[in-house]
Amino acid sequence: MAEHSGPDALQRSRTILRQTLESLQRSGVQQLARPPEPMMPVVQEVAIVAEPPPEPLPRAERPPPSARPRPAAAAPVRPPAADADAGARSAPPATPPAVPAPPPAPGPRSAALDVVRQEVARCRRCAELAEKRTQTVFGAGNPHARLCFLGEAPGADEDRRGEPFVGAAGQLLDKIIAACTLRRDDVYILNVLKCRPPGNRTPLPDEVANCREFFERQLEIIQPEFICCLGAVAAQTLLRTTRPVGQLRGKFHDYRGRQVVVTYHPSYLLRTPEMKRHTWDDMKMLMQAMGIPVPNG
Predict the structure, then answer these.
(1) How many CB atoms lie within 10 A of CB 284?
(2) Range of 235's domain?
(3) Residue 81: inside a domain, yes or no?
(4) Does residue 255 lie in a domain region?
(5) Of 244, 243, 252, nearest to 282 (Cα)?
(6) What is the rounded average pLDDT of the residues 67-74?
(7) Residue 283, domain member (yes or no)
(8) Average pLDDT of 3-7?
């Protein structure tokens, strides 16, 4: 195949092609037909080379936004918070920390007592008592109590703290209540007077009359089944009598359908301890009526 290569072979090919064309021209052929294209395209092997990205067009030659191809919409990506929520829903709920329950809302009786309490705090019916008091002493305890203890008037400790029976007499009353297998929170404690008389003197009749409305309204709101009068002033005022404690104790009395027990005031028991046994007898009578088992001894 060496004789067909080189410049001589090319020259001979050109000579043969020219002679052929001249012969066809003499024969009357003016135009040659185009050879048919092959049925199968010829595949040429080319090297695959990554094309460089097209250079950006100048601003004036850029197509308008409507003609620009839109990128394919990407799949929505859930935010981390949503994924966290989904994980929380699939995971078992964690036990919340223990939170103390809020205190119960005050009931109608507490609200009604507060109304009377505010009236007492503004009261100046007794000029002397209102002038010399530190504060009024309304009452304290369970507004739904079955048992109310009614005393005489506040002392120095009560005037200072604003709560009934918190001094030495109050400590003895707490022991009496505990001996009845009750707590101070189970009962309600109040006095006939809401202000301390000067020098702890005995309340005057007009002072008792001025305060009667307040303690009677308290009892009507609380509606106790039993009332224990502590001392002569409480018993005589509630029952509207002049009889002494010695004649009133040991039996039940009636006050607007409620059972009343009369016993000695704790201050009197502190001065005469030998009378405590009589008060204990009164308390046992009260417990039996209330259905409370009486402790032995």
Answers:
(1) 15
(2) 108-290
(3) no
(4) yes
(5) 252
(6) 48
(7) yes
(8) 53
244, 232 Cβ separation under 8 angstroms: yes
Secondary structure of 174-201 in HEC code, one letter for each residue = HHHHHHCCCCHHHCEEEECCCCCCHHHC
Which tokens in the block code for residue 180?
């009845």
Q: Please give the torsion angle defined by the CA atoms of residues 175, 176, 182 and 184, in that order, rounded to the nearest 10 degrees.
A: -70
Instruction: Flag whether 77 is in a domain.
Output: no
**Three-class DSSP category at 242:** coil
First to last CA, the chain: 144
Condensed to tens digits (0 to 9), the pLDDT of residues 161-179 reads 999 999 999 999 999 999 9
What CATH number has the domain bearing residue 147?
A: 3.40.470.10
- Give how many domains the chain has, as a whole number: 1
* The dihedral sign for the CA sequence 173, 175, 181, 183: positive
DSSP β-ladder status, 188-191 and 258-263: unpaired
176 exposure class (CB count in 10 Å sphere: 0-12, 13-18, 19+): buried
Quote the CA–CA distance of 292 and 148 in Å, as a whole number: 16
